[in-house]
Amino acid sequence: MTAFPLLDTITDPADLRQLERRQLPQLAEELRSFLVESVAKTGGHLSSNLGTVELTVALHYVFDTPGDRLVWDVGHQTYAHKVLTGRRTGMDRLRMHGGISGFPKRSESGYDTFGVGHSSTSISAALGMALAAKIKGEARKTVAIIGDGAMSAGQAFEALNNAGVADADMLVILNDNDMSISQPVGALNKYLARLFSGSTFNAARKAGEKVLGVAPSLLEFAKRAEEHVKGMLTPGTLFEELGFNYIGPIDGHDLDSLVPTLQNIKKLKGPQFLHVITKKGQGYKLAEADPILYHGVSKFQPEIGIEGAKDGKSGSSKPSYTQIFGDWLCDMAAADPKLVGITPAMREGSGLVRFAELYPERYYDVGIAEQHAVTFAAGLACEGLRPVLAIYSTFLQRGYDQLVHDVALQNLPVVFALDRGGLVGADGPTHHGTFDISFLTCIPNMVVMAPADEDECRKMLTTAYRIDGPSAVRYPRGSGPGAAIDRALTALPVGQGEIRRRGKDVALLAFGSMLTPALAAGDELDATVANMRFVKPIDRALIAELAREHSLLISVEENAVIGGAGSEVARVLEEIGSSARLVRLGLPDRFIDHGDQALLLAEVGLDRDGIVRAARDASTQQAENRAFGT
């Protein structure tokens, strides 16, 4: 007998809507078990997805998807959605090259109404869809599902502020899984949710508005009285003031509350706000006990868990670049009391756990608020402190305006520690750090560095910290080649690269993580290999030397080739009037899909073989041009 008798009957939400309501808890139980088994085999985001199983079932049961639009925030909560919308068989290749994405993706399914990888976009997108339906005269519902962490971002409140006055029929569901907004759910809250979403209450309210409309002062008094009563009993006063009808909080794992509440809300007009309480890791005890550990997981055995799986195998002895940064931050903080560490809700991912424990008075997690994080750092710098902002490359894109106007324009000493520079693997195009060299290098006053190994990363962080202006150190995900680390806080000469291998004819100019494959390619080609270190200021003297001694230069970077480090090399060659030919290798002008990092790098020609192939092709073309006198 199958382990998933109900789930086996669901190929799309239309099948789900044929079930009797009493069958939904069993379906949720099977779906949760399937997710644990599936993610244990592939890796992925687990605890947040386990927390939204009942909510996902209820939404697809009540709303006529995909005609009605479900707009998911972040994407860490959509695995159950993927399974119920016809992608269950594809879950065995989740986040693998050629497999399904770990996030909503419009090209993957019509049920994925909006592509997303970062947080806090759902309300804006849902409002656009709701107003589009109104303009087109289409009778459909739009629902945004956003987590309480994502509500810390400014864009979410910008959208709420707009939606409350936009006269749009839309529902915002706050998936609150941290108990940080409301008190624990009880019978009274369940009753109030049913009451406030019911037709009787809302009909009475509208009738009251009509009667009292002849006396505006009484109408205003009645509205304020209603808000006061609801504000005493529920935490929704803020959302009511923004123009939403607040409902909740209710238990997000209680289908007997979720389904009728959603059915009631579906009948209402105007902006609605439903507050549901869920628990990360729900139904899997290990994930419930440590939802952070089980947020993003590698393969594991469900009956043993992550810690048990780790005990059974030896991990890499090499520290990750994230660990290198975390250790450096603590060491530099011990040396300088002016250092302040900042993260936009990525304490674990950016390596600030130990720093937060050792220096809590100098540690700031500002929430999912990248724009605020950058300007906050600028404010600290104005007062003589030395802020270090630990942020993923792809997340810094959200704070670009603040980086330009609030930091660089004022030439403030803020260090940007850019984790995940380059291709990150399974998280795919929303998380690849493929543009930072391009968008940082063009900004005046910026110093931009890319370490080739662990020791160089530590030295570059120290270099950046001692620069009296804005600087960025971009380093890749994972571990480096295994270089020995000098624990001293030693800086590098700004703007100076080095030659790591002497050869002839061809010179490879490697930036950051590309030094390792460039050295391997250099051995094959007998080429000179330079570790450029700095993208800005770039080492003009080294480029001029290489151009004099070699007829072919090849720049290699794990960044978009357009506007990247190779463009800086080309600019220098033009300025010095060099006739040396330059070939620029980097990421192509397209978004790179998800998959294994090594596989993706090979696919775009940024591994040893790809560099060798490009060098030989260019050399052959040079020889042919000379033969034909061109």
Count all strands and give the number: 19
Helix content: 40-55%
CATH class categorisation of the largest domain: Alpha Beta
The share of residues in extended strands comes to 5-15%
The rounded distance between the terminal residues' Cα atoms is 74 Å
Number of domains: 3
Q: Which second-level CATH architecture of the largest domain applies?
A: 3-Layer(aba) Sandwich
Strand arrangement, major sheet: 9-8-10-11-13-12-17
Rounded mean pLDDT is 90
Residue runs with pLDDT of under 50 for 5 or more positions:
179-185, 308-314
State the shape: globular
Query: Per CATH, what is the topology of the largest domain?
Result: Rossmann fold
* Secondary structural class: alpha/beta
The H-level CATH homologous superfamily of the largest domain, spelled out, is Thiamin diphosphate (ThDP)-binding fold, Pyr/PP domains
Query: How many helical stretches?
Result: 27
> Measured on Cα atoms, how large is the radius of gyration?
28 Å
Largest sheet: 7 strands, mixed
Per-chain topology:
Elements: H1 13-16, H2 24-42, E1 44-45, H3 47-50, H4 53-62, E2 69-72, H5 79-87, H6 122-136, E3 142-147, H7 154-163, E4 170-176, H8 187-197, H9 199-212, H10 216-233, H11 237-241, E5 245-251, H12 255-266, E6 271-277, H13 285-289, E7 296-297, H14 305-311, H15 321-335, E8 339-343, H16 347-350, H17 353-358, E9 363-365, H18 370-382, E10 386-392, H19 393-396, H20 400-408, E11 415-419, H21 436-441, E12 447-449, H22 454-465, E13 471-474, E14 498-501, E15 506-510, H23 515-525, E16 528-531, E17 534-536, H24 540-549, E18 552-560, H25 565-576, E19 581-587, H26 597-603, H27 608-627
Parallel strand pairs: 2-3, 3-4, 4-6, 5-6, 8-9, 8-10, 10-11, 11-13, 12-13, 15-16, 15-18, 18-19
Antiparallel strand pairs: 1-7, 12-17, 14-16
